[in-house]
């Protein structure tokens, strides 16, 4: 029996790389989708290319959009990425909003819309995304209720859905997992995390800063899983 196609949103980071391995393990043929969206560096895209090649996806598309025209985020405008010595310190420097400045307005909605279009063109009824609501930065578009609402909307939004040839399922297998659990699951599936990049603000050599929130969350996950993070960090 032929494997079913699935779209996998692939940033090149810890979570999306694990989700790609999960989709393959569940018997899907993955079609990876990444974005050049005006983010402050291209390191993650290079990581996504490495991961896609290593895991043998059917096709890897990098879509070009420019969210810098809107700004509003440290990732898409000239705003410094916050750095901290610990996650506790990051929490203590909250500015009154539970959503950090690294949130890109409506990014997941935009990305999922592209994934929905990609799915319809390749005949896929499944989209995999690496959102998590346990060890995460508090982004509103990573919550379970958001994912459930988007799935309902998506089934009203396409010709395939209206004609009954597609019943879209949005998979978020990490949504209730801690970073440590994600690391353990990826290692069980043979993921090579040395190919990945999670840092919001790497240096010119691509080395992770170790102090932005996503680096701290990643390091926490590896530490709690009892293994060493294989990527290189600045000053290490």
Automatic annotation (TrEMBL):
Pfam families: QueC (PF06508). Its EC number is 6.3.4.20. Its cofactor is Zn(2+). The keyword Zinc applies. It comes from the Bacteria. Keywords: ATP-binding, Ligase, Metal-binding, Nucleotide-binding, Queuosine biosynthesis, Zinc. The keyword Nucleotide-binding applies. Binds 1 zinc ion per subunit. Zn(2+) binds at residues 199, 209, 212, 215. It catalyses: 7-carboxy-7-carbaguanine + NH4(+) + 2 ATP = 7-cyano-7-carbaguanine + 2 AMP + 2 diphosphate + 2 H(+). Pathway: Purine metabolism; 7-cyano-7-deazaguanine biosynthesis. Transmembrane segments: none annotated. InterPro entries: QueC (IPR018317). ATP binds at residues 10-20. HAMAP family: QueC. Belongs to the QueC family. NCBIfam families: 7-cyano-7-deazaguanine synthase QueC. Catalyzes the ATP-dependent conversion of 7-carboxy-7-deazaguanine (CDG) to 7-cyano-7-deazaguanine (preQ(0)). This is 7-cyano-7-deazaguanine synthase. It comes from Streptomyces rhizosphaericus.
